[in-house]
C-alpha cells in the first residue's frame, strides 16, 4: 500500500471515529435528559403551575414517544441512511429541547416532550448500528461498543447530580437549553463524518407504513399503562380500556409484520436463538438498571432527606465503577467465553441488587457503597457480551433493525420493572407501618432500633398511652422505616429476577461462521 493510500485510510478511520464519538455524545444527551428532568420535576411543577396528578406526564410523554421510535430504527436507516437519520433526529431532539425550555404551560411542554422523546428514541440504536457499520475491525468495534455503553450507563447515574446543579445554580429551562449547543455541534459532525450507507428512496412506497399507528398504539399505550397504573390502580376503568387497546395494537402489529412482504419492523430476527437470549438478558438488565435508578434516589430523598445534588454525588459510585471496569471487560471479552462473562455479570448484578435489600433507615453513603460498586462493575460485564451475542453475527443489512429491537427490550424491561416495583412499594408501605406500630406498642427493642427510636424505653413490655407530641415525633420515623422495608422487598425482587434470568445462559451457543465480524 502506498504512503498516500495509508494516509487516506488513516484519515477515513479517524473520520469514522469522530463521527461515532459525536453520535455517542448525542445518545448520551438523550439518555441524560430523562434523569435530569426527573430530579427537577418539583421546580417545573411550581414554575408552570402543573397539577400534581398530571406532573408524571412530563416523563410519561417523553418515554411513550421514545419507545415507539426505537423499533423504527431499521426503517429510518433504509429511508434516510444512517447519517441522514441521525442528523435529522439529533436536530429534531435539539429543536424540541429548545421548545421545552420556552414552554409557558403544561400543554406546550407535553407536546414538546413528545417530539423530544420521539427523536431521542432513535439516537441510541442508531449509534450502536453505526459502530457495527463503520468500524469493521473486531477490536475497534469492541472499543466503540464499550464507549457507547459507558456513556449510556453514565447518563442515568450523573442525571441527579447534573439536574440538581443546574436547577440550584440557574433555573429549570436550562435543563433543556443545555442540549442546544452540543446538539448543533453533534449534528454538524455527524453530517460530515458519518458515511456508512446510502438511502433507499424506493423503500418508502414499499414498506408497510399502515403498521405504524398500530405499533404506536401498542408501545405508547403500554408505556402509559406501566407509568400510570401504579398510581391510578390496575383495575381503574381507563387503565383497563387502555390495556385492551394495547393488546389490539400489539396483535395487529405482529400480524402485519409477519404477513406483509416489506414489514415496518422485521420480526424474523427472533428466529436466531442467540438474539432471543440476548434480548432476554437485555430485558433483565433494563429492569435492574431502571429499578436501581428509581429505588435508590427514592430512599436517599425521602428517608435520608438528601437533595438531588447530594443524591447524585452518592450515586456517582456506580459511574466510577463502570469506568474502572470498562477496559477490564474489553480485555476479558477477547479471552473469556461470552457465556462465562454473561454469567459473571448477571450474578454480580444480582448481588448488587440483593445487597441493597437489607437497608435500614440510618444507612447512607458507606452502607450503600459496595452494592453500588457491584452494580456498576456488573453493568459493563453484562452489556458487552450480550450485545455481541445478540448482534455480532447478523448480516450487515439486518443489524439496524436488530439493534432497535434489542434496545427496545431493555426499555421494556425497565418500564415493566419500574411498574412492578412502584406498585409493590405503594402497596406494601401501609402494611409495614402497621406491623411496626404493633411491635413498638409491644415494646419490641429490635423494631425500635430499626426505626431509630431511643432504646431505653423498650424493655419488651407493652408501652402505655402515647401523648400527641410523642406521636408527632415518632410517626415520620415509623413511616420512613415502613418505606425502607418496602424498598428492601423491591430490591430483593429485582435481584431474584436477575438470578432467574441466568437460567437462559445454558442455551447460549457459540455463533458459527458468517455474519458481521
Structural features, described:
The chain is 77% helix and 0% strand. It is built from 18 helices and no strands. It has helices at 3-38, 41-48, 57-69, 73-101, 106-134, 138-169, 174-177, 180-193, 203-206, 211-232, 237-259, 273-303, 308-333, 338-355, 365-391, 399-441, 445-451, 468-501. Helix 5 packs across helix 16 and helix 12 runs antiparallel to helix 15. The radius of gyration is 24 Å and the shape is globular. Residues 3-8 and 512-517 have low confidence and may be disordered.
Q: What class, by secondary structure content?
A: mainly alpha
Largest sheet: none
| Whole-angstrom Rg | 24 Å
Strand content of the residues, in percent? Answer: under 5%
Catalogue the unreliable spans: 3-8, 512-517
Number of strands: 0
Bulk shape: globular
Bin the helical content: over 70%
Query: Total helix count?
Result: 18
Amino acid at each position: 500500500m502506498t504512503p498516500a493510500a495509508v494516509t487516506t485510510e488513516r484519515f477515513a478511520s479517524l473520520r469514522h471515529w469522530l463521527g461515532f464519538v459525536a453520535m455517542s455524545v448525542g445518545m448520551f444527551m438523550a439518555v441524560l435528559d430523562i434523569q435530569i428532568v426527573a430530579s427537577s420535576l418539583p421546580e417545573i411543577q411550581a414554575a408552570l403551575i402543573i397539577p400534581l396528578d398530571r406532573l408524571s406526564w412530563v416523563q410519561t410523554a417523553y418515554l411513550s414517544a421514545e419507545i415507539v421510535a426505537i423499533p423504527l430504527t431499521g426503517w429510518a436507516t433504509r429511508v434516510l441512511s444512517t447519517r441522514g437519520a441521525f442528523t435529522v433526529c439529533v436536530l429534531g431532539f435539539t429543536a424540541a429541547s429548545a421548545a421545552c425550555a420556552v414552554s409557558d404551560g403544561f400543554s406546550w411542554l407535553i407536546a414538546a416532550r413528545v417530539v423530544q422523546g420521539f427523536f431521542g428514541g432513535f439516537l441510541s440504536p442508531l449509534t450502536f448500528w453505526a459502530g457495527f457499520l463503520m468500524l469493521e475491525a473486531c477490536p475497534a468495534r469492541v472499543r466503540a461498543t464499550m464507549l457507547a455503553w459507558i456513556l449510556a450507563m453514565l447518563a442515568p447515574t450523573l442525571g441527579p447530580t447534573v439536574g440538581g446543579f443546574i436547577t440550584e445554580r440557574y433555573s429549570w429551562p436550562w435543563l433543556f437549553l443545555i442540549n442546544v449547543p452540543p446538539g448543533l455541534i453533534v449534528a454538524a459532525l455527524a453530517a460530515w463524518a458519518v458515511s456508512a450507507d446510502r438511502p433507499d428512496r424506493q423503500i418508502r412506497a414499499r414498506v408497510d407504513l399502515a403498521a405504524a399507528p398500530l405499533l404506536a398504539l401498542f408501545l405508547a399505550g403500554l408505556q402509559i399503562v406501566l407509568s400510570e397504573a401504579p398510581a391510578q390502580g390496575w383495575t381503574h376503568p381507563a387503565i383497563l380500556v387502555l390495556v385492551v387497546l394495547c393488546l389490539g395494537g400489539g396483535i395487529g402489529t405482529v400480524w402485519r409484520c409477519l404477513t406483509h412482504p416489506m414489514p415496518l419492523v422485521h420480526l424474523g430476527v427472533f428466529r436466531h436463538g442467540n438474539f432471543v437470549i440476548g434480548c432476554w438478558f437485555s430485558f433483565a438488565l433494563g429492569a435492574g438498571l431502571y429499578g436501581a435508578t428509581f429505588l435508590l434516589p427514592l430512599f436517599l430523598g425521602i428517608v435520608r432527606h438528601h437533595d438531588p445534588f447530594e443524591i447524585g454525588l452518592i450515586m456517582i459510585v456506580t459511574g466510577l465503577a463502570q469506568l474502572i471496569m470498562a477496559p477490564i471487560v474489553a480485555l476479558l471479552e477477547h479471552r473469556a467465553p461470552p457465556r462465562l462473562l454473561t454469567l459473571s455479570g448477571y450474578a454480580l448484578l444480582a448481588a448488587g441488587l440483593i445487597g441493597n435489600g437489607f437497608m435500614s433507615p440510618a444507612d447512607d453513603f458507606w452502607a450503600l457503597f459496595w452494592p453500588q460498586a457491584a452494580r456498576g462493575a456488573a453493568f459493563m460485564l453484562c452489556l458487552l457480551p450480550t450485545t455481541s451475542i445478540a448482534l455480532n453475527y447478523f448480516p450487515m443489512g439486518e443489524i439496524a433493525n436488530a439493534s432497535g429491537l434489542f434496545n427496545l427490550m431493555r426499555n421494556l424491561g425497565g418500564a415493566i420493572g419500574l411498574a412492578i416495583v412502584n406498585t409493590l412499594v405503594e402497596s406494601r408501605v401501609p402494611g409495614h407501618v402497621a406491623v411496626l406500630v404493633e411491635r413498638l406498642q409491644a415494646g419490641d427493642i429490635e423494631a425500635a432500633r430499626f426505626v431509630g427510636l431511643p432504646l431505653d424505653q423498650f424493655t419488651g413490655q407493652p408501652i402505655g398511652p402515647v401523648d400527641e407530641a410523642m406521636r408527632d415525633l415518632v410517626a415520620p420515623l415509623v413511616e420512613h422505616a415502613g418505606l425502607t422495608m418496602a424498598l428492601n422487598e423491591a430490591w430483593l425482587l429485582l435481584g431474584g429476577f436477575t438470578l432467574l434470568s441466568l437460567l437462559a445462559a445454558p442455551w447460549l451457543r457459540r455463533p458459527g461462521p458468517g455474519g458481521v465480524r
